[in-house]
């Protein structure tokens, strides 16, 4: 009986020790974004390029992270557009949540504020933005770093309607 209890204590120690070693860590990702405008923006702009930095903070042992994202996004004017118009440049700042439904696959939802930094922009300088995301984050080097690939819709809600985009994000993700 004593050997059995000792064995149970030993297994419990290994189990709890192992779970402590797999605690999620804070992650940072840096990447590029490439996409195309949708809705009213698609009549003038042909493509969207940008860059972003995302901080992921683990909320608990569950695969849920609180996210903070900042970046820069350029809506590039179509080559066939006849008018004189410059690219629209936005600086979005978002906060949200990311849930891993498998070891590498996730869904994410972000809300935030987007500021337009163009001098010639006639609409609101700032607007509410929202962005649902689906993606995966695959390990690349001894499972310490990852390549994060996501697909998202981002909508910038303005008085005249929503300026939207569908974009892919390719990022390098690592623990802090």
List descriptors:
Porin; eight-stranded antiparallel beta barrel; mainly beta
Q: Helix and strand layout, with pairings?
A:
Layout: H1 2-21, E1 27-39, E2 45-58, E3 64-77, E4 88-100, E5 105-116, E6 126-141, E7 145-158, E8 161-175
Question: What do these coordinates show?
Answer:
The protein has 176 residues and is mainly beta. It has a single domain, classed as Porin (Beta Barrel). It is 11% helix and 63% strand. The chain contains one helix and eight strands. The protein has an eight-stranded antiparallel barrel. The protein is elongated and about 55 Å long. The termini are far apart. The relative contact order is 0.19. About 10% of the residues have low confidence.
Q: Outline of this structure?
A:
By secondary structure, the protein is mainly beta. The chain contains one helix and eight strands, in the order H-E-E-E-E-E-E-E-E.
Q: What is the number of domains?
A: 1
How would you describe the shape?
elongated
CATH architecture descriptor: Beta Barrel
Radius of gyration (CA) equals 21 Å
N-to-C SSE series? Answer: HEEEEEEEE
Residue share in helix: 10-25%
